[in-house]
Amino acid sequence: MRRALLRWYRRSARALPWRATRDPYRVWVSEILLQQTRVETALPYYERFVDALPTVDALAAAPLDRVLRLWAGVGYYGRARRLHEAARVVVRERGGRFPSSSDEWQRLPGIGRYTAGAMASIVSGEPTPAVDGNVKRVLARLYGIEASIDAGPTQADLWRRAALLVARRSPGDFNQAMMELGARVCTARRPACAACPLRRWCVAWRDGLQDRLPVRSARRPVPRVDAVGGLVCEEDRCLLVRRLPTGLLGGLWTLPGGELRRGENHGDALRRHLRAMLGVEVEVGKRLAAVRHEFSHRRLRIHVYRCQLPGPVGLGGGEMLRWVSRGRLGRYAMAAVDRKVLAAALPGTVEGGVDDEPRSLAGRG
Known about the structure:
Blueprint: H1 2-12, H2 24-34, H3 39-52, H4 56-61, H5 64-71, H6 78-93, H7 102-105, H8 113-124, H9 133-142, H10 152-165, H11 171-184, H12 203-207, E1 224-234, E2 237-242, E3 253-254, E4 257-259, H13 266-278, E5 283-294, E6 299-308, E7 321-325, H14 336-345
Helix pairs in contact: 1-11, 2-3, 2-8, 8-11, 9-11
């Protein structure tokens, strides 16, 4: 099986920029980008990111705002924050030296078992597995595993099987071959079994189970959430607020506002949020737009209103609140949902973004 898979990979693998190098920094950036992001989506962001920040020293020295701007549009911004934090650990505590083993990689911020295994096998040649969503699907079909791959015992079994299967020679190529197979051949829907190099060993193919496997646990229904945003402008400037550093879109800039409470109307919600942020009562005016945006875990609808301040307001040093001229709004690190909101409320000021949170979690496809 190993020989067949590696022959297929070396003949058929896509030519991707991070596969043409053993530079641990560039491989690392690609691995973080490819978590829950398709290859086609990740490619232009990878090129932009490594062109702007070509080394771990450059990433560690960059302000977080710049890192988030470069990441804008990819989604899952916690990945960018942890990448930045880990780069600073590598530079300041390890003298710029990257880990060489899976165990060492897992000591860095934001590095889990999968990324550690991928980095150690690809860069250092450690024969350790790397099990992502694509690999889970391949293994479940290959071995005919009918238990839910989301269950803890099944995940432990998949990692055990992957550890037994990984090639002792060329483990990095082997792990990438498993991922490539899942992305291009052993796909979630309509797998191309006739083209699979592992077909002769595959239990799912033998028993006609390829369309039933893998089994996933039932997902919870995605809730709908309503929120409000206030467009507060003063002459040619608009008010932006920085989100708290933790959470889904932490550290990014947005219009002031927030979610509605149960039974709360839009105006009351806006006044409540802006009172908490600015310490003043605002006058809520005309509704400018209603923007829908889907994340993997919720459907968001944002109602945007023009708001008027009662007078000059101090912003406390500009760390969390900032007046920004309309011509400079596009230079701030914003999530795609916030770019969509601004593009709807103030046409021509920023370009609308792509989805921040792709609903498909397969990645690497």
